[in-house]
Specification:
The protein is an all-alpha fold. Helix content is about 80%, strand content about 0%.
Length: about 325
C-alpha cells in the first residue's frame, strides 16, 4: 500500500484544501515572525539607547532646541527632548514618550499630543530627502511643488492642532520641567545601562506582543485580498480623469514612487494637464493613506502606545492627512470645472 505525502500532491500540482490552508498560515506566521524580529531588534536598541541617555541626563541638555514650541503648547519640557529625537527617528522619540507614560511621568493627554508632535518633523525632513530630490524633478516645478506644499501643509496643520489642543486642555503648569533626579547626570555608563534595561523590560515585551499580533492580522487581511479590495476606477470616472491615468493612479495606491514615475512623462508630453495630474495624485493619496495606516501605522503605534491610544493617534493623523487632500481636491475641481 502506497502512502501519499504532501510531496506527491505537489508533484501533481494540487494540494488538499486543508493542507493548502495550513501551509498558507504557516507562511504567514513565518513572515510575521521575521518582520517582528527585525523590527523589534530596532525597537529594543532604541529603547535601550533612549533609556541610557535619559538616565545620564543627555536629553535634558538637548531640550532647549525645541523648548519655545513645547512651551507654547503647554507640554512638559521632556516633550522638547522627544521632538529633537524625532528629527532623526520618530520611533525612538515615541518609545521614549511611551516609557515616560509607563513610569507615570506623563498623562495620557500629554502623551497623545507629544506623540502627535513627534510625527511632524518627518514632513520637513522628507521635503529635502524626497520632495526636492525625487518628486519635483519627476513631476515638474508646478505639480511637484504643489504636491510638496500639500505634505508640508499637513505637517503644519498637525503642529497647529497640537498647539491649540495643548493650550485648551493642558494647564500652564504642565509645561514646567519634570523633576529630575540630581544624581541621574552623575551616573556612570554601566549603572545607567542597568537602569535602562530594568526600565524597558515590561514595555518591550508589551510592544513585541502587540506588534506580532497586529502584523499577523494585517498580513492575513492582505493575503485574503481585503486590503486590495478598494478599486480606484469608479472614483476616477467620477472625477473624469483621463482613462490612461487609471494605471498610474492604481499603481500610486500601492507605491507612490512608482505611480509618480509613471505620471511624470505623461505631464511632460502633454497627455495630461497639470491640474488633472494633481487630481490624480490627490485621489491616489485618498486611497493610499488609509491603506498605509492599516499596513504600517497601526502595528507601529498600537505596539508602542497600546490599542486605545495607538488607534487614536493613527486615526487623528490619517484624518488630518486625508482632510488636507480633500480640500486640495475640492479646490482643483472648482478650478477645472
Amino acid at each position: 500500500m502506497r502512502i501519499w505525502g504532501v510531496g506527491s500532491f505537489i508533484r501533481f500540482g494540487t494540494l488538499p484544501e486543508g493542507i493548502n490552508e495550513e501551509l498558507r498560515m504557516h507562511n504567514l506566521l513565518l513572515e510575521t515572525l521575521n518582520t517582528t524580529v527585525f523590527t523589534m531588534t530596532t525597537v529594543f536598541l532604541m529603547l535601550f539607547l533612549t533609556g541610557l541617555m535619559m538616565e545620564m541626563g543627555v536629553f535634558q541638555r538637548m531640550s532647549f532646541l525645541a523648548k519655545p514650541l513645547v512651551s507654547i503648547s503647554h507640554l512638559p519640557s521632556v516633550s522638547a527632548s522627544s521632538l529633537v529625537i524625532s528629527l532623526g527617528s520618530a520611533l525612538a522619540a515615541n518609545t521614549m514618550i511611551a516609557r515616560l507614560r509607563e513610569e507615570g511621568s506623563l498623562s495620557e493627554r500629554q502623551t497623545f499630543l507629544s506623540a502627535l508632535m513627534n510625527s511632524v518633523p518627518v514632513y520637513f525632513r522628507e521635503f529635502f530627502t524626497y520632495q526636492l530630490a525625487f518628486v519635483i524633478p519627476v513631476l515638474g516645478i508646478f505639480v511637484g511643488g504643489v504636491y510638496a506644499a500639500v505634505a508640508i501643509a499637513t505637517g503644519l496643520i498637525k503642529l497647529l492642532l497640537v498647539v491649540i489642543l495643548g493650550r485648551a486642555y493642558l494647564s500652564r503648569e504642565s509645561s514646567l520641567p519634570l523633576e529630575v533626579d540630581e544624581t541621574r547626570a552623575k551616573k556612570g555608563v554601566i549603572e545607567a545601562a542597568k537602569k535602562s534595561l530594568q526600565g524597558q523590560t515590561r514595555i518591550f515585551f508589551r510592544i513585541s506582543t502587540l506588534y506580532f499580533f497586529m502584523t499577523f492580522l494585517v498580513l492575513y487581511l492582505s493575503s485574503n485580498g481585503i486590503l486590495q479590495s478598494m478599486n480606484a476606477l469608479p472614483i476616477a470616472q467620477i472625477f473624469q480623469v483621463p482613462s490612461e491615468t487609471v494605471v498610474p493612479l492604481t499603481i500610486y495606491v500601492a507605491s507612490p514612487k512608482a505611480g509618480i514615475t509613471l505620471l511624470g512623462p505623461m505631464i511632460q508630453n502633454g497627455s495630461i494637464s497639470e491640474t488633472k495630474a494633481l487630481i490624480v495624485l490627490m485621489l491616489g493619496s485618498l486611497f493610499m493613506l488609509p491603506a498605509y495606516a492599516v499596513r504600517s501605522l497601526i502595528p507601529n503605534y498600537t505596539s508602542v502606545f497600546g490599542m486605545r491610544l495607538g488607534l487614536s493617534l493613527v486615526l487623528t493623523s490619517t484624518a488630518i492627512s486625508v482632510l488636507v487632500r480633500l480640500m486640495v481636491l475640492a479646490a482643483l475641481m472648482i478650478v477645472l470645472y
